[in-house]
Amino acid sequence: MAHDIHIIGGGLAGSEAAWQLAQRGYKVRLSEMRGASGSGANTTPAHQSDALAELVCSNSFRSDDDEKNAVGLLHHEMRRLDSIVMQAGEVARVPAGSAMAVDRDVFSAEVERILSEHPNITVVRERVDALPEVGPTIVATGPLTAASLAESIVAETGSDRLAFFDAIAPIVHRDSIDMSKCWIQSRWNKRTAASNEDGDYINCPMTKEQYLAFHQGLIDGDKTDFQQWEKDTPYFEGCMPIEVMAARGVETLRYGPMKGVGLDNPYHTTEEHPQGRWPYAVVQLRQDNKLGTLWNMVGFQTKLKYGAQVELFRTIPGLENAEFARLGGLHRNTFLNSPVVLDRQLRLKAAPHIRFAGQVTGCEGYVESASVGLMAGLMAADELAGRDWTPLPGDTAMGALVSHITGDADAAHFQPMNVNFGLFPPLAERIKKKERKEAYTGRAKQSFENWLAARESVPA
Ligand SMILES: Cc1cc2nc3c(=O)[nH]c(=O)nc-3n(C[C@H](O)[C@H](O)[C@H](O)COP(=O)(O)OP(=O)(O)OC[C@H]3O[C@@H](n4cnc5c(N)ncnc54)[C@H](O)[C@@H]3O)c2cc1C
């Protein structure tokens, strides 16, 4: 069957993109390397089967609460767009309280059945080793993209635009930081043209006692082990986990990311230092998105377990009530510097016939990857139909996610991101804290319906 579009990668994103395009009448060639015969590796270190849309680890799509949770809201929007991942998830659903969990085998088998029976989809078991030079293409090869294709992507984008490891420092919601203990200032008051008026960092000061207790907490905290195949992927000194640095000596962090020099603590002034003394140690947070709602703990990439991170990081002055948009981690993960190399429609700026989708774009998570696949499918379908793409509003879950990865994130420090309310524009009115989540989802649902109605009123 001659095809209208080639999709590379039959994971969550590629399967969803294929379904969206096929349902709109486009002929899809879906290339999946698992199950291919021939030379070279035709699987990834994490996949266990040849099934399409395999869930490589947990069997959970996380919260299904579309009133109070950003992931639940994403589920809702995907269902409104007839997502195959959500449909198959429903068929495979197992009890999990307010979360959506699935029987992984039933789930993948259902996706595989629907796609392979679809008259507009040809599933081809083949590894693609180079980006196609012509023809509409969606690359959805995931966090463990085959090495040969990764090389081809690097050749197109430049070696510093494709990462092979993420090094995620925790990200904190700005409105959960206690600014009566922290202050905003850049070290030595250094400024650039892009600087904020007061400075670029939120500084959380520590006394010697606090620092020593914190250092011990890093040493003692429960850690996640690297998988054998992750151990084989080198990470740079600049991405070293904070607890590994701590283990090098009690002073190492004070000469590294926690150094207090050049920062005047306004809560600790003396006659000699009326503007404030330098703290013994400091934790710095840097703005992570254009909206200024998310702040990143600088240098705090970590393999501490999630529970241990929350417990320890909430001992930092000013972060006692911190809410984390995401916790730190370090994994093997192939992803693009999307804010730099992709346009707002997920197309490679250097080769616009190629779109990217899924985790390789720098989103994080099963549902997020599938939703970016869904959007890539819709965008490609509109392009094939000669219709202008109407961007999803930034206050919807899908719109917020795609805006973040295609331009709103801090490109210089771009790391994978899951969906969360910190990606949404702040709420206009003063809304009580306990009502904010419903306010975000209520606004999003209204915006999404308006977008859908406008889209459906324009013939394809
Ligand atoms: C070890 C690990 C555990 C994870 N655990 C979770 C979790 O528990 N929960 C969660 O929400 N997220 C998890 N993630 C993150 C992420 O959600 C998943 O990786 C998700 O599967 C990403 O979807 P995707 O469609 O982008 O990529 P994938 O689902 O990985 O799909 C990519 C597909 O492309 C194929 N492929 C790769 N290269 C080629 C090529 N050159 N030619 C043809 N085919 C190719 C692969 O075989 C694969 O089928 C995990 C990631 C990893 C690596």
How is this structure best described in words?
The chain is of the alpha+beta class. The protein is built from 13 helices and 17 strands. It has helices at 12-23, 70-80, 84-91, 104-117, 147-157, 208-220, 228-231, 242-247, 306-313, 338-341, 366-385, 397-408, 436-457, and strands at 5-8, 28-32, 60-63, 93-94, 99-102, 121-125, 137-139, 162-168, 171-173, 183-184, 201-206, 281-287, 294-297, 324-326, 329-336, 347-348, 351-356. The radius of gyration is 23 Å and the shape is globular. Flavin-adenine dinucleotide is lined by residues 8-14, 31-34, 44, 46-47, 56-58, 127-128, 140-146, 149, 358-360, 365-366, 369. The site of flavin-adenine dinucleotide has 33 residues, from helix 1, strand 2 and helix 11.
Q: Topology of this structure?
A:
Layout: E1 5-8, H1 12-23, E2 28-32, E3 60-63, H2 70-80, H3 84-91, E4 93-94, E5 99-102, H4 104-117, E6 121-125, E7 137-139, H5 147-157, E8 162-168, E9 171-173, E10 183-184, E11 201-206, H6 208-220, H7 228-231, H8 242-247, E12 281-287, E13 294-297, H9 306-313, E14 324-326, E15 329-336, H10 338-341, E16 347-348, E17 351-356, H11 366-385, H12 397-408, H13 436-457
Parallel strand pairs: 1-2, 1-7, 2-6, 7-17
Antiparallel strand pairs: 3-5, 4-5, 8-15, 9-13, 9-14, 10-11, 11-12, 12-13, 16-17
Helix pairs in contact: 1-11, 2-11, 3-4
